[in-house]
Amino acid sequence: MSTDYTALTGTYTLDTAHTRIGFSARHAMVTKVRGSFNDFTGTAVVNGENPSQSSVQLTIEAVSIDTRNEQRDGHLRTNDFLEVEKYPQITFASTSVEQAGDDVFRVTGDLTIKDVTKPVTVDFEYQGSAKDPFGNTRIGFEGSVGIVRSDFGITFNAALETGGVLVSDKVNLEFEISAIKNA
């Protein structure tokens, strides 16, 4: 049975306290390092009758990168990786939204990291909606997408004695979204 999304039509603001914008990358070819960005803003315009009229905007403060290791985070902020002083924000602006399944919405847009803009497509699975204790309508979505960091000019690496490299070129971006409908 397909969900009726018409009641969800409106403009939403990301609830930063209940949203995670994360990533994972393979480290030393044997494990994954996971992290997140802790400072971001975003809005979504949802058109439940015609999803193609929906849109998403996201701005991430690059300096807010957090892998729970201060030394690593410091390195990720340098010219080797994000160059946060020169490129303080990572942005995403949707160019199209389509319903790709009963509860799946395919969001395509322009991802900008370090002044390089590339198209990415994320399939978001609708997690549901609810009225919270304050009377707000909340919606939830989860999605992820793999990107190639060298496509965005992030090329730092180190060879390992055993072969391979220190940091994978592929990075998975992970989104666990909670958004509140604007009054």
TrEMBL record:
SMART domains associated with the record: YceI
Protein's name according to its UniProt entry: YceI family protein
Pfam family, any one: YceI
Stated family: Belongs to the UPF0312 family.
Domain Lipid/polyisoprenoid-binding YceI-like residues, every copy: 11-180
InterPro entries given in the database record: Lipid/polyisoprenoid-bd_YceI, TTHA0802/YceI-like_sf
